[in-house]
Amino acid sequence: MKAPKIAQCYCCEQAATTKDHIPPKCFFPEKKYLFGNNPDYRSNPIIVPSCSKHNNSRSIDDEYAAAVIVMNSRSNLAATIFKSKWVQTLLRREGLLGKRIFSTARSARIISNKNSVLIPYKTLAISYEIARIERVIESIARGLYYVESGSEEKWVNSCIIKSTNFLNRDLSQPQDAYALNQINQAFIHGEKHQELGLTKKGSHPDVFYYQFFKSEDKNFIIRMVFYDDLTFLAFLKDEKTTPSRIIIAV
After folding, report:
1. Residue 132: how many CB atoms within 10 A of its CB?
2. For the chain, which terminus, N or C, has the lower number of CB atoms within 10 Å?
3. Long-range own/partner contacts, residues 44-48 (CB < 8 A, 24 or more apart)
4. SS3 of 146, please?
């Protein structure tokens, strides 16, 4: 009689001692923070086996990334969650999370194009800790790869995280903005026309959904969307690049 197979972590070769939510549970609001007849956004989560290193040690980063995403989404759902939950969270524990996020805030002047009229206005620009956000998004991408493989494979090579929503420190578009937007639009087109299997996956797409694509060069692209307007693209490749620092204007 064969011994039962010991589950391994979705992210490494260590034995799984716990389970990880993909995305982390803090990304999905509890019902007490919502109003009216809303679904249970914590039902039917994506769960993968994990070692303690790739689960518990990332909890502070998870909270940081979830707060940043909610703060910068323009959806009504995100605004509701920010007012009912994240304002309290940013102020608790002597406001450590809030201080960390807003310590880099500065006044900025940008140009908005409204009805073909360029209108300058002042806003608040916040420099975020890109490494923390990327660690969280990368762990989500690796978890989704594990799920898409039927819980048989894990991605241990390079994972490059990009986003169509982020700006350079001087509020200009990054050099690869055009290429990223083209890829993003290709996913949207594929989903709309039911091509290449690019369906929206996830139990609660108004909070989070993803799309999975295997490219011709046998690499993978995962598109992850939060609140319908904040998008991350994960490129699972063998080559590795150094990500640049990013900020968002709010």
Report:
1. 18
2. N
3. 44/203, 44/204, 45/21, 45/203, 46/21, 46/22, 46/143, 46/144, 46/147, 46/202, 46/203, 47/19, 47/20, 47/21, 47/22, 48/10, 48/19, 48/20, 48/22, 48/143, 48/146, 48/147, 48/151
4. helix
Place of tokens 């206005």: 121
Cα–Cα distance measured from residue 29 to residue 25, given in angstroms and rounded to the nearest whole number:
8
pLDDT(79) > 90: yes
pLDDT band at 38 (very low <50, low <70, confident <90, very high): confident
Contacts of 143 (CB under 8 A, 6+ apart): 10, 11, 20, 22, 46, 48
Cβ-based neighbours of 213, under 8 Å, separated by 6 or more? 187, 190, 196, 197, 198, 220, 221, 222, 223
Q: How many CB atoms lie within 10 A of CB 180?
A: 19
| Tokens matching residue 80 | 């509701």
Q: What is the DSSP letter of 54?
A: T
Question: What DSSP element (H or E) covers 220?
Answer: strand 220-226
Tell me how far apart the terminal alpha carbons of the chain are, to the nearest angstrom. 61
Residue 226: strand, helix, or coil? strand
Q: Which two tokens stand for residue 225?
A: 């969307």
C-alpha distances out from residue 68 to 24, 79, 172, Å:
14, 12, 20
